[in-house]
Amino acid sequence: MCGIIGYIGGGNAAREVYQGLKRLEYRGYDSAGGAFLNGDELVVVKKQGRVEKLLPFIDGLRATAGIGHTRWATHGAPSDGNAHPHTVGDISVVHNGIIENYAELKSELVADGAVFVSDTDSEVIAHLLNKFYDGDLAYAMKKTVDMLEGSYAILAVRRGVQRIYAACNKSPLIIGYGDGENFCASDEPALAGKCDGISVLDDGDFAEISAEGVIIYDGDMQAVIREISPNLAVCENLGLGDCPHYMLKEIREVPLSVTQTVKAFAGAEQKLKAAFAGVDRIILTGCGTAYHAALLGKRYFEIFAKIPAETEIASEFRYKNPVIGKNTAVIAVSQSGETADTVEAARLARGLGARVIAVTNSRRSQLNRVADAVVPVAAGVEICVAATKSYTGQVAALLACAFAVAGYSYAEKAGVFGNIAELCGKVIENIDASSLAHLCSRSRGVYFLGRDLDYAVALEGSLKLKEISYVPGEGYPAGELKHGTLALIDENTVSVFLITDERLAGKCANAVEQVVSRGGRAAVITNVNGVPEKLPECVEHIILLPECEPYLAPFLTAVAVQTLAYRTAVILNRDPDKPRNLAKSVTVE
Ligand code: AGP
Question: What is d(CA 46, CA 34) in angstroms, rounded to the nearest whole number?
Fold first, then answer.
């Protein structure tokens, strides 16, 4: 899963490709590269590491066309050799996706004398294009993709041919139409400010792109027209402001994410209500943080709309032969709207007759295209790989949905969201997680514990900490501690308890006792009156949050655990914005 970009036209192709790669870096950042038509030459540059590493090598080029790639390794370690483009003969290729039958194809090609120089699945594409090329790269592309199984968005160029050739299947590819120049890219944000119109290619499509125009073919190589719609991606101010990292900046944007999301919800409310008519069962699905938001959404639908709700991790859901009726609503939650597991889960649900509702921070994504109704998350662009403001935006959107399905009008509940935003603002302003972060940074394991809604946020706190600080740990239901996890507790572990529901506070305090009496280090994040007094004296860290209704507390505890994870990562000198081995958007299964 990676980002790809292509440019052809009168501008500086190397610069355009470089800028596009910078905007696509969230899709992967372990290596990057480009292939450029520079006069009569085909110049290929590829480097392990971030996109910036390319700059010194491409700065002086006067290329008229180029293709670029930013990688998140699936097959083959991050290295210069495994970076894209892959070049065979005079043809260079970039690929996003996974070629599932690459091993068989490689064996056949090797038997024919091909010499492979990388460990990637993608290199087979370059060999096949070279093998099938007889003066027509469009034809070679068709013959090549006929051999491929799996997912792909491919761009190819050949020395001496002023064209970019593209093909895609189950990996996104869009065309951007400029004036005397044209683009193609994995997604719309890569083309922000670059062109006014875009087309989204269908699965199986091919495109032949020149400076003068674009011809799109379907899988039978018949020329087709794909709708051109306005490019909605805007060049937002994506600077860091006075923050050292995007993660901190984006945590500070949590209140805005909540208010903007609820404002945007007003426009989606009627369509959502229509999609929910007659629904008697809800399944919420997503991956990672989005799944954790779904866990809270489930409880909101149960509490307010009184509709039975379940959650399923999207990557599991597809393989369970889910039982779905026409009165089942499947809510797919995804920041990017491009997560392959979630998109495929939504597709499956739709195929089985469910109403599919997408809750997404992307205005135009694969998930939006699959869904019957879209509930927007208006968190704004999230750069940091670790989701923060998009999570609280998702939770706000799901709460707004539950209210609407329960029959409350938008106006009736608008004040609730204003209140959440204000309280989150107070937490952001006042929280001091530094000393607890120091303790976590020195620990062997950090366990986040809570009950009911606090448990859902405990899972998210644990994921956030692992993701950006690499300190191991787990999120656990506080009541389950005594059924096994307690065996892990010793003086080198930290247990962080979330306690925001008065009904459960006493029982959670018992669990704190169980930890400290076994020598474990404990911390408590709470907003329940009287809890600090009930805790054993040796609880070293107590983070107090403003009081609120229990169903609103996840917004506040989320900000607290996000801040704790951020501080811990910084103490350990990790890059919280680009954690190792990860990518923001996971477009492979
Ligand atoms: C969150 O911090 C993670 N980076 C990850 O779990 C993410 O939430 C997950 O990959 C789902 O992404 P999506 O919301 O774009 O579908």
Answer: 6
Please tell me whether the peptide bond between 85 and the residue prior to it is cis, using omega within 30 degrees of 0.
yes
Ligand 1 centroid – CA 290 distance (Å) = 6
Q: Which residue's CA is minimally distant from atom 2 of ligand 1? A: 386
Convert the pLDDT of each residue in 487-540 to its tens digit. 999 999 999 999 999 999 988 888 999 999 999 999 999 999 988 888 888 888
What tokens were used for 486? Answer: 């307690």
Give strand pairing partners of 310. 283
Q: Which residue, 39, 38, 56, is CA-closest to 47?
A: 56
Q: Which residues pair with 153 in a beta bridge?
A: 96, 168
Taking a C-beta distance cutoff of 8 angstroms, is the pair 535, 524 a contact? yes
Name the DSSP letter for residue 170: B
The single residue of 2, 168, 195, 440 carrying the catalytic annotation is 2
* 584 is known as an active-site residue: yes
Active site residue 168: no
The pLDDT of residue 31: 92
Amino acid identity of residue 109, one-letter, is: L
pLDDT tens digits, one per residue of 363-376? 888 899 999 999 99
pLDDT at 259 over 70: yes
Contacts of 364 (CB under 8 A, 6+ apart): 188, 200, 232, 337
- Pocket of ligand 1 contains residue 587 by CB under 6 Å: no
Q: How far apart (Å, rounded) are the C-alpha atoms in residues 322 and 315?
A: 12
Determine the Cα–Cα distance for residues 539 and 524; give it in Å rounded to an integer. Answer: 8
**How far is residue 419's CA from residue 398's CA, in Å, rounded to a whole number?**
17
- Which ligand 1 atom sits nearest the alpha carbon of residue 360? 14
Secondary element (H or E) of residue 59? none
DSSP at 304: I
Q: Specify the residue with its C-alpha closest to ligand 1, atom 16.
A: 334
The pLDDT tens digits of the residues spanning 381-427 come to 898 999 999 999 999 999 999 999 999 988 889 899 999 999 999 99
The full length of the chain comes to 589
Catalytic pick among 46, 389, 464, 584: 584
Question: Is residue 585 in contact with ligand 1, taking CB distance under 6 Å?
Answer: yes
Ligand 1 site, residue 481, Cβ cutoff 6 A: no
What is the H or E stretch that residue 376 is in? Answer: strand 373-376
C-alpha span between 384 and 250 (Å, rounded): 8
CA distance 378 to 424: 17
Which amino acid is located at 49 in the chain? Answer: G
Helix H or strand E segment including 435: helix 434-441
Tens of pLDDT along 86-111? 999 999 999 999 999 999 999 999 99
Distance set, CA 53 to CA 32, 96, 575, 576 (Å) = 8, 20, 17, 20
